[in-house]
Write a structure and sequence with these properties.
globular, alpha/beta, about 15% strand, three-stranded parallel sheet
Length: about 100
Amino acid sequence: RELRHPDWDLGDMGGQVTPRQYMELMASSKFCLHVRGTRVQSPRLIEVLTFGCVPVIISDGYDLPLAWLLDWTKFSIRLPESEFQRLPEVLAAADW
């Protein structure tokens, strides 16, 4: 199922982007999607934080890095994998 929304500007970069374009997209984004990968820890989540995006984490059973120090509920949005289709409504309701 496609998750496009009329208010979302997903850009039209033709698939791949240069490192500079990637950094510009991340820096100009309000929300940055983070989905579970194949590795236990991914640098992508920390990368999202350095760009100032609100992390949108779609994953089940994911131990967040630095959870002993950071209260992730204060600055991120989490959805179980089974609820990914609710993403548009969750982001629309987010008060960030």
